[in-house]
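Quick one: structure for this chain?
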Amino acid sequence: MAKAKSQYVCQQCGAKYSKWSGKCDNCGAWNSLVEEAPQLEKKAVVDRSVGKTLFAQKLSDVPLEGAALRISTGFAEVDDVLGGGLMPGGVVLLAGQPGIGKSTLLMQLALIIAKTKPVLYVSGEESAGQVKLRAERLGGKDSSNVSLATSTSADDIAATISEGQYSLVIVDSMQTVAMAEIASAPGTVSQITNSANIIIRAAKRTNTATVLVGHVTKEGSIAGPKVLEHLVDVVLQFEGDRYGGFKLLRAAKNRYGSTAEVALLEMVGEGLKQVENPSATLLEERGKSDGSVILATVEGNRPLLVEIQALVNPTHFGYPKRTSSGFDLNRLNVLIAVLERRTKLKLSESDIFINIVGGLKLQDSAADLAVCMAIASAAAERKLDDSLVVFGEVGLGGEIRSSVASALRVKEAKKLGFKGAIAPQSRPKDMFIRPVIDMRDALNQYLEKK
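Got it. Here's what it folds into:
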């Protein structure tokens, strides 16, 4: 009998090849092919008459099965991101950079929920003693309703969930668990897909809320096959600077609520805590020099006022340096080109550095105008009035385009005592907004000489 040949499976899309190559022809990923033992294929089913007629119910007769009784996490903002709390029988996938605080957040949620419901925390990365030390640091020394288990067996985890003893089960993490009947290593496409399947089926069958922790790649996307995100009900992304600053929890997918909500958290000695007034916190140490501009941005449905700092310095090398922290570098290069072409600023021989204070990563197109004004302020050594905020998208022609949620941005600026906003005019007209048409108009009107 001929020996079965091994196959190579892409860890990004699951495509299979008979030999290894550096690039997957299906999805274009490099160095993603991993050798796996071939799976024994079951004999094709010929007789299709063995199936049973499905039991169908009218929509009005379907019970909610406790769907209205969501489990509160104890964090109001996290509940908003989830759509009102953890759904019984719902499966949540939480992903984020190493050290960002995923295990800390989940342990805090487990300790809060354990005050009223039984919780199981399954760790495949740490020992039970290490998990207990974290729980004690977070104030859960006497919590008797939290059970700890260490296992990398997806079969054992699914069997434990199937007993229905727990209201919440946390699995940390999916890249460490594996099924015994699959020969490939943990973390591969086949292991992640099949392990997630049996855990999700057990959670749905017993109406158990389940949270799965996922690793991320160096590009920031969730590691493993894309099908993992399709299998679960909610996909949460935990973002921010792991060494300090604010951390954002946002939903990339949510079958039970909106994906526009964002939770803003801060790491302290006792764990993560909600930030009650993030705009005031971000501005309390604001600089008064040139190159400092306040941006009225929106994260999900939440308005924030963020300081943008720019530093423009003559370059000492043949090629000017462009560096940004919290802002897309490619977009920065485009805005610099617009400034040079549409205004009288000469930036081709200057190093330009952009920093978003607080460790935030901006994805708002309305940050364009604030970044441009910060660069112009630093290059011309002219300050912007401290009582003004800025927002607006910049086109390649230098024109200022309207932004979404202008009313929310203006309301937040008024609340913190600002006197006006440099932005495109809204409809209906708002006297708080000082309208600008293009980039040159904004710079000439509002950058003051020292």
